[in-house]
Amino acid sequence: MSSIDAEKERWVKAWSRKKKMLGPKKWAELVALVENRMIDHLTQAAEAVTMSKEVLGGQQFFGVARAPRVPDEPEWMESRFSIFTTVAADGQPVAYVVTLRCWADWDCKTAIELNKSMVSRVCSDRRLSFSTRAQTEVQTRTVIMWMRLRGSFFWNKNQKINNANLYFDSASNILRVIHSDDFKSWIHAHSQINPAKADFDFLMHQIDSAAMNPEISRECVPGALFDRRGDVIYVSNGDASMVRVRAAVGGEPVVEVVPNGTDSVVFTQGMTLQPWEIVDGEGEDPFEHCPPFSTANYQSEHGRMIARLWFLGLVSCLRSYPAIVFTGRMRSGKSRTAKGVFELLGAPVRLSAIRANGENDFWTVVNKGGVVCFDNVDTKNAWFGDAMQLACTDGSTESRTLFTNDQTTTLRANAKIVMTSNNPMFASESGLADRLQIVRLEQFDGKNGKESGDSSITEAIAKKRDSALTWLVRTVSRALADSEDVEPNVNMRHPDFAAFSMRCARALSSDAYKQSILALKSAEFDKALLTIQNNSTTNYIFEALSARFTNPVFAGQEWDGTASDMMDAIVEIHPDLEKSKYLSATSIGKALGRYFDQFAVLFAMRPPRKYGSQTKYLVSGFSDMYAKNVEVLEGKSKITPEGSEEALADFL
After folding, report:
1. Residue 640 reports pLDDT greater than 60
2. 436 touches 324 (CB < 8 A)
3. Virtual CA dihedral for 5, 6, 12, 16, nearest 10 degrees?
4. In this structure, are residues 20 and 60 in contact, taking their beta carbons and an 8 Å threshold?
5. What is the SS3 assignment for 165?
6. How far apart (Å, rounded) are the C-alpha atoms in residues 410 and 164?
């Protein structure tokens, strides 16, 4: 009997107990492995080598990739494992090592058991104990080699911490967070290592080390719902695939479904859209054919266009992006419309509340990425305005890591923000209002009621979702091919958003392009109006000036006066405010100075003039922009104090 046959027989006897537990098919596979390429592995003896960093440390633990030895053989990896060390006669430290191996076509459990079997036999030949610690290290090295053959390790470029480490499974095209329960369940299913045992914890620590090792791992910024690389946009399509959108060629959109991980673009499991299909044709505009967007009670068509442009712009992946606010009275469908955005995308529904001391929670939510909705934002919080201004202009916050002295954590505004509000008092901060896109909704009543309930709207969205997303990607493809100039200065705060959304509108039609310009310009006016209306003092000033310039008695006359004169004009309308402790000439003067830019949008004003200790203001009438927008926006869904002392106190 040859030595190979003897070793095979010995191996079969050693595995006789396992043969009883394995099925005939699995046993045949194991025997085939031995016959084809495992015999030299299972029969190896301990090799004496001089101890060195190359042999015992560094990358050896995670395995070294080897090219196939013969044609049609898969890639394989090996790792040098020291059984024991000693000192040779010449005084040199010597290590007795064996080579752990794993081929790409092996399953993880088989690789672990074959390597353990080989090391156990070598230890037995040398009358050494194959300790529990050594068994744990063998299986850990084997698992990591198997993982490297099956996929890739990544660390998150924005958060280089263990909790953000990632693993991309090339077999299923799924990117998993290593510290997630999903990943732990996945690795347990393949390795059969008990998660309750200490060797599983050892394995997870070594996987973290592998993911942070620049020799075998790579940095990446995982996508959340959408990603963009240059002029190519990627829209997730389930955990394993995505839709790649390129610039249209000859007016024909270039849209294709590709596996997750193509072009080094990866979407993390849990931050992907639900699977969807590209339908034939151009698809359907959801703002015309899909409730609640098509049936929403918009105060004007400008609101519908603003919502459409904001939705199309989501895939642009712009770092600086305005928040959209659905505002209106109770039962106007604000929250249902906001929820519909998530359902239409197929994204996880994330409706959050703003709490008084919730700034840290706010940054944690927006750092996660994707789309998030802050529902019923009616209460004014001290921190909210500043935080939202940062979030809408690619801001971040840096704070001390908990339970440390000098380590810091940086959270970025990665999410696109939706808000709903009945009483948007936060808009009294002009800097925040300038970063919003406002959609005003009218209240549904007996004559104009909702056409369907919540569950039926969800079903309608599900039916239209494939068609709506097809419309989205085809429109964006044409927009990417559009290199012509667009109307300048329609949104001074977010010019990139305005340019991209106008190109999307032009991809729809020339009429849609003209409507988008009007809508965006109207939105700039609406920002100033919303700011003025949601501050009690400025709202009284606005009311007094409006009353003057709509009064035929003062037709063609300018208003030229001081803050005290404005106080008198307000008292004429609201006599109960004459002795108010909340309203005075001083507070009016401060409001006119602080909100001068917003008033200048609504009224034709000159800069204030100093006359000794007094400051005078000259207002000649409504501005041209107000005249163009008054029919659309004035007198509808205003948030106006009732004119009483108690109402003013509530506003303050």
Report:
1. no
2. yes
3. 150
4. no
5. coil
6. 13
Q: φ and ψ at 559, to 5 degrees?
A: -110, 120
Length of the chain: 652
Distance CA 252, CA 427 (A): 42
371: Cβ contacts below 8 Å, ≥ 6 apart: 225, 314, 341, 342, 345, 347, 350, 415, 416, 417, 418
Query: Is there a contact between 571 and 578 (Cβ–Cβ < 8 Å)?
Result: yes
Count of other CB atoms within 10 angstroms of residue 212: 15
d(CA 207, CA 230): 33
Banded pLDDT at 47 (limits 50, 70, 90): confident
* CA angle, residues 393, 399, 401, in degrees to nearest 5: 135
Distance in angstroms (rounded) separating the CA atoms of residues 226 and 247:
16
At 267, list the tokens.
């979407």
- pLDDT 10s digits, 146-159: 999 999 999 988 88
User: Hey, what domains does the chain have and what are their CATH numbers?
Assistant: 44-153+182-207 (no CATH), 286-443+454-529 (3.40.50), 535-651 (1.10.10)
Angle among Cα 189, 190, 196 to the nearest 5 degrees reads 50
3-state secondary structure of 561: strand
Q: Which of these, 529, 451, 518, lies nearest to 491 by C-alpha position?
A: 518
Helix (H, G, I), strand (E, B) or coil at 246: strand
Strands (E), 430-553: 436-440
Dihedral angle computed from the Cα positions of residues 492, 497, 498 and 499, in that order, rounded to the nearest 10 degrees: 110
| Backbone φ, ψ for residue 63 (5° rounding) | 95, 150
Cβ-based neighbour number of residue 196 at 10 Å: 7
pLDDT digits (tens, 9 = 90+) for 220-260: 989 999 999 999 999 999 999 999 999 999 989 999 999 99
For 647, the token pair is 């109402």
